[in-house]
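Design a sequence for this backbone.
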């Protein structure tokens, strides 16, 4: 059943409302909450009706789509007169008149703004002013004839021009120029093969098309006095990124002026803005100032910035340097690495390979994002692979990557049952890559038969007591013969450590396998690492997906996939024929067993007896079954779709833009973990620190730029304990000595309004 039909069935049932014209509004928590607007069965946008400005914008937008005022008033819990006032306010006074009573200044408090603009404001409410305009219009038309009052085509055309689309009004923005006007400071000319850090200049490898000097617009280049911003809470993340890794310098070197879209992505990641299109609802001036831009541009300009950086195809170099820099600077842990695959679904019309959905327990079109995290949930490495992905090859690749980084002690790789197998274990042991995993298909009866006295070790995790028993599992793997030379490698014999884990609360037992590569890990460390996999890997990805737009894929593009092979459909057809033939033979065998041969007078069997006829039919069917099995064995297991009829070729999703966006999301997520560590002095419990940090992310504030400093002042939190932790965090961040390439220092503080 189509998605639109499903939505139609659920319309007006509980929390889903049919607005007509193909629109549905899903309000799971009432008319003053966050909801989803659907058009033709597909998600159009996510709206927060608790916000007055967003609610008014949505009303005007739906009214312009010719939605019935009666239906809309019932769904939105607003009177028809209120809806009419919203529409007329926008048509008469524009978007500023719809949302505000006057045009506020950028650098003054609301109280001071009211005193300055008191003469410019319209007296009274806009509803009363609209009422007076309607009365004047009625009085003017009182003496007019019916012909004069007729609504002709020309009048309708004029009205439609006056009532411009609300989307266009929200996206209207002044063009961003690359050069300063007269009287403004000139742009600083930088060579992209040189990276500045403090007062030192470090040579960087130059790229082919950036060898020449390029004029780059630096962040926070425009000096100004205190100006208000609702997005001051994202500044701590920017300070961490700029101060403790070559984050900004790497963007300058690889993308030039493309650094601007990465800061926009950082805003999206911190504030959980799920798409570029949703940025049109943000305050462009306030968001632009906190990001170091003059103003956040419209959606079209943002997309042009994105396509400019994505067209350079440098995400590989960016991620490679970023991952290595995290390990080298100690920003991620290197004791335990947890690797798991996560589905990135695809809902387009092109034919792509299927990945596995754990929640639905079925394959779905999409990709697999193989994410590696450390013990604290910080992302160490990620790679998006086509289709199901190859977890085993990824683990071996990470082991080689760790050796290249010269870490000394190799990290222990922890993964789930998908990696179980003697061939894979043999490769890990040969390459001396330590690992921990669950033992797949362990005999539960044998585990439960073990004596309780044999469990000599104890460990406690998350308030649950466990008992441990260590054993040794002898393994042997015989490599297959080389298809080219026919040579066979010798048998590989090796031993793995086997830990039997007994949950005393549930009386359940399970086994863990470990190859520690002579690290001499204690049984408690092995089991604790395995039990931490869910919290460090699965929960990390769930939290990223819930609080940050990690599934967002900007700029979808597809190309021809290199993997065009599929399971041979002829094998499936022959398998069905073999199954049918076997079932038929089973019936014949039963019938044949119940019949007796009929003999002639000379003792020979009669040729037309049922027993003889069944024997002949069985012989024929057995010969057919044997031939079917021979035909199936002769077929190749996989074939190329190009040689088949009625098969479309597979497409590969272009992940250049996705890698760039996930680079920013990963950076923000890891910076979040570092900020939580900085808040440890104020709050010891991790959950309390998480709530406090996200409260800081949503703080309003003010920003000031001069020739030397970029200063952000956040509004103080109300609770004294939280305010103390907020102030302490700001002092720590200022002490990091963050400095942007232009030479300005970054400082953050907490205080009252400076204006």
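Sequence:
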């Amino acid at each position: 059943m189509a998605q639109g039909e499903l939505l139609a069935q659920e319309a007006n049932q509980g929390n889903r409302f049919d607005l007509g014209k193909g629109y549905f509004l899903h309000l799971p928590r009432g008319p003053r909450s966050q909801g989803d607007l659907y058009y033709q069965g597909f998600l159009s946008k996510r709206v927060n009706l608790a916000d007055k400005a967003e609610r008014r914008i949505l009303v005007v937008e739906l009214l312009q789509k010719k939605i019935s005022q009666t239906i809309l008033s019932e769904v939105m819990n607003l009177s028809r007169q209120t809806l009419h006032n919203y529409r007329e306010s926008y048509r008469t006074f524009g978007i500023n008149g719809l949302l505000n009573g006057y045009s506020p200044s950028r650098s003054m408090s609301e109280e001071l703004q009211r005193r300055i603009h008191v003469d410019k404001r319209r007296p009274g409410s806009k509803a009363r002013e609209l009422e007076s305009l309607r009365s004047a219009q009625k009085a003017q038309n009182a003496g007019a004839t019916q012909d004069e009052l007729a609504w002709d085509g020309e009048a309708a055309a004029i009205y439609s021009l006056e009532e411009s689309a609300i989307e266009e009004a929200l996206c209207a923005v002044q063009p961003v120029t690359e050069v300063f006007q007269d009287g403004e400071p000139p742009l600083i000319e930088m060579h992209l093969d040189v990276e500045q850090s403090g007062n030192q200049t470090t040579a960087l490898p130059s790229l082919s098309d950036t060898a020449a000097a390029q004029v780059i617009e630096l962040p926070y280049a425009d000096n100004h006095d205190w100006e208000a911003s609702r997005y001051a809470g994202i500044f701590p993340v920017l300070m961490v990124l700029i101060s403790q890794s070559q984050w900004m310098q790497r963007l300058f070197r690889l993308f030039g002026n493309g650094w601007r879209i990465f800061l926009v992505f950082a805003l999206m990641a911190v504030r959980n803005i799920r798409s570029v299109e949703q940025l049109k609802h943000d305050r462009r001036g306030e968001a632009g100032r906190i990001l170091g831009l003059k103003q956040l541009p419209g959606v079209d300009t943002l997309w042009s910035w994105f396509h400019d950086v994505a067209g350079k195809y440098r995400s590989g170099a960016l991620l490679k340097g970023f991952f290595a820099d995290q390990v080298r600077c100690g920003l991620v842990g290197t004791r335990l690495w947890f690797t798991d695959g996560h589905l990135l679904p695809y809902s387009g019309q092109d034919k792509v390979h299927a990945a596995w959905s754990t929640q639905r327990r079925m394959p779905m079109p999409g990709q697999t994002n193989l994410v590696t995290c450390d013990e604290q949930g910080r992302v160490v490495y990620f790679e998006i692979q086509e289709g199901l992905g190859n977890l085993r090859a990824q683990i071996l690749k990470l082991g080689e990557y760790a050796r290249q980084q010269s870490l000394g002690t190799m990290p222990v790789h922890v993964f789930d049952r998908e990696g179980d197998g003697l061939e894979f274990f043999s490769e890990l042991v040969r390459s001396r890559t330590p690992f921990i995993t669950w033992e797949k298909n362990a005999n539960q009866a044998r585990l439960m038969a073990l004596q309780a006295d044999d469990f000599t070790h104890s460990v406690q995790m998350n308030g649950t007591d466990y008992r441990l028993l260590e054993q040794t599992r002898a393994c042997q793997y015989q490599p297959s013969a080389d298809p080219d030379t026919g040579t066979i490698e010798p048998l590989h014999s090796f031993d793995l450590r086997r830990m039997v884990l007994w949950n005393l609360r549930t009386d359940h037992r399970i086994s863990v396998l470990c190859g520690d590569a002579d690290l001499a890990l204690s049984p408690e460390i092995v089991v604790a690492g395995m039990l931490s996999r869910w919290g460090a890997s699965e929960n990390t990805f769930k939290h990223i997906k819930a609080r940050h737009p990690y599934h967002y894929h900007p700029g979808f593009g597809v190309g021809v996939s290199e993997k065009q092979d599929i399971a041979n459909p002829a094998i499936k057809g022959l398998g069905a024929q073999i199954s049918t033939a076997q079932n038929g033979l089973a019936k014949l065998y039963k019938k044949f067993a119940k019949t007796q041969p009929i003999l002639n007078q000379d003792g020979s069997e009669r040729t037309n007896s049922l027993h003889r006829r069944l024997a002949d039919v069985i012989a024929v069917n057995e010969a057919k079954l044997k031939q079917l099995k021979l035909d199936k064995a002769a077929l190749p297991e996989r074939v190329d779709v190009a040689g088949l009829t009625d098969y479309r070729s597979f497409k590969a999703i272009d992940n250049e833009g996705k890698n760039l966006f996930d680079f920013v999301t990963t950076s923000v997520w890891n910076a979040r973990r570092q900020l939580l560590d900085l808040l440890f002095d104020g709050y010891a419990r991790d959950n309390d620190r998480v709530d406090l940090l996200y409260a800081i992310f949503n703080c309003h504030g003010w920003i000031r730029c001069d020739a030397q400093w970029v200063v952000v002042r956040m509004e103080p939190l109300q609770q004294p304990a939280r305010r103390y932790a907020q102030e302490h965090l700001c002092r720590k961040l200022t002490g990091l000595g963050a400095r942007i390439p232009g030479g300005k220092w970054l400082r953050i503080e907490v205080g009252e309004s400076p204006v």
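Residues 189-312+679-750 form one domain.
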